[in-house]
Write a structure and sequence with these properties.
alpha/beta, Arc Repressor Mutant, subunit A, 2 domains, three-stranded antiparallel beta sheet, 17 helices, 38% helix
Length: 384
């Protein structure tokens, strides 16, 4: 039997803006506290140089989504965002319905610029609310207050955006079930088309890691998840990914491409890329230099790491991403995006099927409710 061939998947673009007004104690992203003026002109020029350097990886594809993350991209001026988007359009072809998301803080300074960001080409905002309780916002190191978060959501709802998202955390320090549900009810009342509702975890190399707060116990966390899920579903939000809920037609295209093991170019400090090289029948990953000073140094290379994904790792990497989406996994997509026969994965899943963590038919694999709860156990079967 002829081995499957790698086929080019959809391509997205990720743009990293590394600066924040204040570093949050839970954040392990590549972000840097602002000190002085942002070198906007130099950074935008470097981003476009970065994109030119990776242009051969586009391989004739149109861009289906752009995600501008950070850091806090909304600290940039509207003029800088306009210059960035114009430069991207000069280099790349965007699909007519390309989704362009920008992360934003709810603070007054950023909110006042939302309309100008939309004029620059932003079609979707992702607003980091995190909580609507003043005490929790203070614990999380956030610089906005609950009223500013509500105002940002109200302002976003009035703009000519295709969609917007509110980020909300749960499992916060000493958070009770009632407090978590109160937070969620308030966010639902703001009626965003999309809600990212995710559990706080303590990540290495963060302030919370060196001085951990007291978090809810496992039983409380499970109660919060179950009750919150019921609230969201009753309000018309459908869960399509582990931490993502949307109203019909408002799933994040960029995130879906990521979880479906699609390709993405990453430009900016510490940005990551995953690229299929169809002619060479291999998949590569790339990481850019992390610190803004190094990234802006024209004498230094932009690429920090570049490596090929080993064939032995492809099955695990594919399903580690794909199983975050709560939908059947196409065997044809597996073959197209890994270049491996689906029969190979089926053999590795025998144990997961026996344990009723997974079901299989001629065209798809699908996690059972038990499999979603014990996802790590499913993935472990691929490592046996």
């Amino acid at each position: 039997m002829t081995a499957p061939k790698l086929k080019l998947p959809p391509l997205s673009l990720y743009v990293h803006i590394p600066w924040c007004i204040q570093k949050c104690p839970y954040c392990d992203f590549n972000s840097h506290k602002l000190s002085g003026e942002i070198p906007e002109r130099e950074y935008v020029a470097r981003l476009l140089d970065d994109l030119r350097a990776d242009f051969s990886w586009v391989q004739g594809r149109d861009i289906t989504s752009i995600f501008i993350g950070g850091g806090t991209p909304s600290v940039l001026s509207a003029a800088a965002m306009q210059s960035l988007m114009e430069g991207i359009r000069q280099l790349l072809v965007l699909t007519d319905d390309c989704e362009v998301t920008m992360e934003a803080n709810p603070g007054t300074f950023e909110t006042e610029k939302f309309a100008d960001f939309v004029k620059a080409g932003i079609t979707r905002l992702s607003i980091g609310v995190q909580s609507l309780q003043s005490e929790q916002l203070s614990r999380l190191g956030r610089i906005h207050d609950p009223e500013q978060a509500r105002e940002a959501a109200a302002h976003a709802s009035q703009l000519p955006l295709k969609s917007f998202n509110l980020d909300l955390m749960h499992g916060l320090p000493n958070q009770s079930l009632d407090a978590a549900m109160d937070d969620l009810k308030q966010v639902i009342a703001l009626n965003p088309p999309h809600i990212s509702w995710y559990q706080l975890t303590i990540e290495p190399n963060t302030l919370f890691a060196s001085s951990p707060p007291e978090l809810p116990d496992e039983e409380t966390l499970w109660d919060i998840y179950q009750k919150g899920h019921e609230l969201l579903e009753a309000a018309g939000y459908k869960q399509y990914e582990v931490s993502a809920y949307s109203k019909p037609g408002h799933q994040s295209r960029h995130n879906r491409n990521y979880w479906q093991f699609g390709d993405y170019l990453g430009i900016g400090c510490g940005a990551h890329s995953k690229v299929t090289l169809a002619q060479e029948q291999r998949i590569i990953r790339c990481e850019k230099i992390k610190h803004p000073k190094g990234y802006l140094d024209l004498t230094k290379p932009l690429r920090y790491k570049l490596n090929e994904v080993a064939k032995d790792d492809l099955t695990f990497e594919f399903f580690m991403n794909q199983f975050r989406l709560l939908e059947p996994v196409s065997k044809q997509r597996f073959e197209n995006t890994t270049g491996l026969p689906s029969s190979q994965a089926s053999q590795q899943f025998n144990k997961a099927i026996r344990l009723e963590l997974l079901t299989e038919n001629d065209e798809t694999w699908e996690l059972t409710p038990k499999g979603h709860r014990f996802l790590n156990s499913v993935l472990d079967t691929l490592l046996d």
